[in-house]
Amino acid sequence: MTRHAEQCALLSDRRVSADWMQPGYPFHSQFLQDHHEEGQFLTAMEGPEHLRLRRMIARPFTPRKVEQLRPTVRQVVDDHIDALLAGPNPADFVADFALPIPSITICHVLGVPYEDHDFFQHAIRTMTGSDVPDDAVNKSQGELYHYLAKLIGRKLAAPEDDLLSQLATERLATGQLNRHQLVMLVLFLLVSGHETTASMIALGTLALLQHPDQITVLKNSDGPEVAAAVDELLRYLTTVQPGRRRVAVADIEIGGQVIRAGEGLILPEEIGNRDESVFPGAGELDLRRDASQQLAFGFGVHKCTGQPLARLELQVVFAALFRRIPTLALAADLGDLPFMDDGLGYGVKKMPVSW
């Protein structure tokens, strides 16, 4: 079930569940399988509870609210381009540009102090790595959990204009969420809100440097064309690695096959995004392509809540980067770059660039 049409059908089928409490759910790691009863992320919930929690966090991620952040994100991007140009040449594009931008942005939305970013980035990478020992994962998870629990206490005592304060005062204080549920919700947003976007910024830049003819498209584009180009980059560089994990709760006949109740499903969106029947010439990067049906953010009721924010960040980055640094170039052999392919997402760990 790897074709685009079947993936969309299954991801919107009520007989397919994302609930990892269901027997037969295909966990992507032994650690998650051993510890899944300790709490669920939003992506592993179904039904009324999933919708209830999703609505609680929806307000800052509506297209209108996200668009209001564009000047803020543009300033963050410009500041980091300025810093890049004023700093060492070559520079590490990941550490100096790709990672800070989404980290600053999600911290701004959530109300998490950015000065603590080294701590939570290390904790998240430890938790999501596939070859990390269980004791290290447990340690990082516990440290990050207690950090967020303390931060929630501070927000209750002195609320600010951010999502964490809103959830603490409107949902926790009123009994609509308990403290564990709130910590897990914020942890989910923190994990999903910066790592994948950072990977897309770095990988997208790398792909464009390998396809200089496509950079010209960006330089000569306006808003709608940049938005379409971002869709194509998302299609071409799908960064979520383990596929969408689901389990059948009833028998399903699809694509000439029968999926039995209790069977686990792995729906690899990177393969759906290369379906030639939907994206002719799918193996080529073409920023003029209509890639609006790409599956990088999922499909159906579990489609990524924060996708408007991720799209905006990518649009601002790619609209500005090559206009302001037209001589940007990779300062290492492609084969020497250390890629990150041992966890939930695909990316590049370090990427020297010059200009």
UniProtKB/TrEMBL annotation:
The keyword Transferase does not apply. GO terms for molecular function: oxidoreductase activity. Its EC number is 1.14.-.-. Keywords: Oxidoreductase. Signal peptide: none annotated. It is an enzyme of class 1 (oxidoreductase). Belongs to the cytochrome P450 family. PANTHER family: CYTOCHROME P450 YJIB-RELATED (PTHR46696:SF1), P450, PUTATIVE (EUROFUNG)-RELATED (PTHR46696). This is Cytochrome P450. The lineage of its organism: Bacteria, Bacillati, Actinomycetota, Actinomycetes, Kitasatosporales.
